[in-house]
Design the sequence.
């Protein structure tokens, strides 16, 4: 496979986002399709119903089977979606920069747990890695200590006071108003370009 030379316009930066999988450096998100959300809702309902069924009863067994089928359906839909998404990204870009996230650590943060476990960010990363490699393209993994969110993309000031709740912030040094996720994705993209030695 002949390696594809990356250019700064064709490197994509992805910042992990809890509700929407990711935000990229153009400010686009990757929300799961509606049918996936619908199956998820069905699954939650079926699980609730199961919890009310009498132990050892025939109906409980039936409901248990229904829940396990829905589980499988959700998993398949997610996998399918992530395959299509990673294919689209691979075809459209020459390299993808992504943060090396500690998913287990993130899943332990209570309110992030559900989305983190559900949305398969790790799976997307795996799919991207081999699909890009198949086309002679690269996945650039950025160190997890890289201050992607805290750094102002205009003046490089590091805002140590930034908290998880700050979705939009104003840089105390240059006064730029920054959308947290988009700013982070642009920093990730720039760091990726630096690592790929694109001037
Ligand atoms: Zn600034």
Sequence:
């Amino acid at each position: 496979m002949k390696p594809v030379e990356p250019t700064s316009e064709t490197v994509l930066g992805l910042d992990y986002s809890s509700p929407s999988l990711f935000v990229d450096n153009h400010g686009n998100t990757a929300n799961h399709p509606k049918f996936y959300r619908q199956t998820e809702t069905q699954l939650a309902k079926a699980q609730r119903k199961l919890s009310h069924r009498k132990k050892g009863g025939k109906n409980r067994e039936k409901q248990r089977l229904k829940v396990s089928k829905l589980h499988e359906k959700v998993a398949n839909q997610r996998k399918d979606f992530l395959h299509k998404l990673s294919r689209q990204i691979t075809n459209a870009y020459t390299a993808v920069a992504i943060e090396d996230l500690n998913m287990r650590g993130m899943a332990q943060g209570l309110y992030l747990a559900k989305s983190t476990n559900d949305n398969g960010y790790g799976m997307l990363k795996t799919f991207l890695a081999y699909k890009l490699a198949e086309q002679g393209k690269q996945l650039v993994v950025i160190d997890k200590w890289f201050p992607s969110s805290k750094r102002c993309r205009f003046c490089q000031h590091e805002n140590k006071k930034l908290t998880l709740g700050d979705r939009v912030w104003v840089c105390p040094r240059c006064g730029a108003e920054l959308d947290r996720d988009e700013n982070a994705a642009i920093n990730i993209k720039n760091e990726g370009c630096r690592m790929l030695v694109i001037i």
Notes: The CA atoms of residues 2 and 136 lie 6 Å apart. The beta strands are 11-17, 21-24, 95-99, 138-142, 168-170, 177-179.
